[in-house]
Amino acid sequence: MPLDRFYVPIEGHVNKEAAFLCGFQWLLGRPEPDLRIAFNSKDNLEDVFKAMLAKYGSDKTLTQMFTALLKHRYVQIQNGPKITAVLLNPRLPSHANGACLGVWVDTKQLAKIETALGPVGAVCAAPWGKLDIDAWVQTNSPAPLECDGGGETQTT
């Protein structure tokens, strides 16, 4: 089974946190039991989850997930998948065999994620900017994601 590829078109989002949330909704919809969110630095990991907590603090479910990911780097969803936050540096754990959301990544970092996932899995890029993943998009033809007003993720 080939690797499924997706990306969040950054032009359609007001800010980077909205792009992350779109990718996060995609991740939650995946059937794999082992899900990862890959960050290129500890600072980015902390910045994203703190921003999500500030913005969605009134949503109990999201608050619990983001707090656990920030504090423990993983959350086990009841009757669902385990989500782990990982750093790309020094390297992403190999043979993840699940789905991975790459946050604020570039083409080089996406290659690292894909190598770690192996032949089975799915990857979604939530880039910092459009130019960061242009080469990856042109080479791999990932499906763009769009989020509707309710936060549901759809492929186009």
Q: What's the CATH architecture?
A: 3-Layer(aba) Sandwich
Main beta-sheet annotation: 8 strands, mixed
DSSP strand tally: 8
Order of SSEs, N→C? EHEHHEEEHEHEE
Whole-number average pLDDT? Answer: 82
Q: What would CATH call the class?
A: Alpha Beta
Shape: globular
For the termini, the CA-CA separation is: 21 Å
How many whole angstroms does the radius of gyration measure?
14 Å
Please give the count of helices. 5
- The chain-level structural class is alpha/beta
Give the spatial strand order of the biggest sheet: 3-4-2-5-6-1-7-8
Strand content: 15-25%
Low-pLDDT residue spans: none
Percent of residues in helices comes to 25-40%
Q: Give me the CATH fold name.
A: Rossmann fold
How are the SSEs placed, and which strands pair?
Blueprint lengths: L3 E4 L8 H13 L5 E6 L2 H14 L4 H13 L1 E3 L5 E6 L11 E5 L3 H11 L4 E5 L7 H7 L2 E5 L5 E3 L1
Parallel strand pairs: 1-6, 1-7, 2-4, 2-5, 5-6
Antiparallel strand pairs: 3-4, 7-8
